Amino acid sequence: MSEQTMRAVTIEEFGGPEVMRTRRVARPEPLPTEVLVRVHAAGINPVDWKTRAGHGMAGLQSFPLIPGWDVSGVVEEVGFGVTTLAPGDEVYAMPWFPRPAGAYAEFVTAPSRQFARKPASLPHTGAAALPLAALTAWHALVDAAGVAAGQRVLVHAAAGGVGHLAVQFAKHFGAEVIATAREPRHAWLKELGADETIDYTQRRFEDATGGVDAVIDLLGTLDETDVRSVSVTRPGGIVVSVPGGVSPGLATAAGRAGVRTSPLLVEPDAAALTAIAELVDAGAVQVQIERTFALEEAAEAHRLGETNRTRGKLVFEVAK
């Protein structure tokens, strides 16, 4: 095949998983300060299928659209002015977010300083599972909540992609970690560092814990998790609400209780990815992959992701 084209998953209209097609499209070329990366693996995230369905970051997209943001691969070319990377470097990133990045493809281009060197201890499939989920957890704990040793941190949806990393980061920072998840995930979450686990299908979390310094809320208004989290948070503590930001109900409840709130939308952050890679290589953090897929299996991957029953992450193997 021509070096001017590449395989990619594309969509021409918003809709269900069936709108995704794998075809050959023009290969991107790096502009000055950008790098061209040959993608070895691409991570799959909830925002991907939400955007495909016309939600999520749909308002920032245009057709034809190549979905996805998480990538791990090898630098193929560098544009004029790039000083931090060279051809052959193994890198990972969540480039351009929330603008289109085109990660479900054999090549991507983006500013060189949005990429970090991938964890040396991980294959590309493991590295591709990290960026969006790990940066979300990192920004929530470090930048929004300022979690410190000795604090109590509650992580909702702790068995998911963001959640299982948030548990490990919080534990690494010296916090006491409470995790909500279905009971079959409890033993695994305790291996990752959770001190307490709560099966939200058996009892309400507000009946099982309290005195929390920070809540990492990955469910938002679902079952009023955001508002209910206020009751377990100490005055002066914080609820970081990731999906959809701070709802009016959360703002009202938190204001009455003297609890702080913060919305969160993850951003490209090469410095944080470098710190995360160091933790991974030191053995302090691990990423869980539920299953890998070929690009041609994009519809199947999204259908599985939309069940919200996966343990950890889903990943495309783009090149072997």
> Please, what is the average pLDDT?
97
- List the secondary-structure elements in sequence, H or E: EEEHEEEEHHEHEHEEHEHEHEHE
The CATH class of the largest domain is Alpha Beta
Percent of residues in helices: 25-40%
Number of helical runs?
Answer: 9
Q: Tally of extended strands?
A: 15
Largest sheet: 7 strands, mixed
Going by CATH, the architecture of the largest domain would be Alpha-Beta Complex
Indicate the radius of gyration in whole angstroms: 19 Å
Q: What count of structural domains?
A: 2
Binned strand content: 25-35%
Quaternary status: single chain
Overall morphology: globular
Class from secondary-structure proportions: alpha/beta
Please give the alpha-carbon distance between the first and last residues.
Answer: 17 Å
Low-confidence stretches at least 5 residues in length (pLDDT < 50)? none
Specify the CATH homologous superfamily of the largest domain. Answer: Medium-chain alcohol dehydrogenases, catalytic domain
CATH topology value of the largest domain: Quinone Oxidoreductase, Chain A, domain 1
InterPro entries: ADH-like_N (IPR013154), ER (IPR020843), GroES-like_sf (IPR011032), NAD(P)-bd_dom_sf (IPR036291), Quin_OxRdtase/zeta-crystal_CS (IPR002364), YIM1/Zinc_Alcohol_DH_Fams (IPR050700)
Keywords: Oxidoreductase
Domain Enoyl reductase (ER): 15-316
EC number: 1.-.-.-
